[in-house]
UniProtKB/TrEMBL annotation:
It comes from Mustela putorius furo (European domestic ferret). This is Epithelial stromal interaction 1. Residues 1-35, 66-88, 125-224 are annotated as: Disordered. Residues 8-17, 142-190 have a biased composition (Basic and acidic residues). Residues 215-224 have a biased composition (Polar residues). It comes from the Eukaryota.
Amino acid sequence: IAEQELESLEKWKEQHRAKPVNLAPRRLGGSQSEAEVRQKQQLQLMQSKYQQKLKREESVRIKKEAEEAEMQKMKAIQREKSNKLEEKKRLQENLRREAFREHRQYKTAEFLSRLAAELPDRSTHQIALHDPQSSTWARSRAYKDSLKEEENKKLQKMKEEQHQKSELLEFKRQQQEEERTKTHQAEHRRVNNVFLDRLQGKSQPGGFEHFGGHWNTNSGNSWD
């Protein structure tokens, strides 16, 4: 059985053996020459590299634009936060000043009312002279009053100096205005005199010359 199977296998191989290929000779590679094909491949390679470069540049540009947009967005957010913080600081400063002003007014009113209610007569004043606490308070109050009076004097002095400066500036401005007016009038008179001199030079001696609807003589009369 094995020998029969081997013989059958050999027969099957013999029947299915590849037959020799007989083809007519012909030119392969199409109608283009090798140089043309090489050139075409080189051109395609260069175009492929150029396209890849363009893609990379486009990707970089898009990335930069996205980063720039993100940066501008962050800057806008930071600017808005800064503006809000400045506004908050300004409001807090205004509130602090207003509270300080109200507190100062309240303390001043309280002190004045207490001072008016506790005005001592001569006997209580004599007693207060022997009271160390009252004496300390009086000295402190006198010192504060002197400081306040000194500040008022300085403020009044500054106001007077500022007023004097303003008056001096106004005086200088008026002087400059007067100088300009005098200069303009002198120039106007000079031009008129030159004009009259020319007219007198052109006119005949002892005669009259009509010019511009007015009569001019050589008698030396000047125009204003």
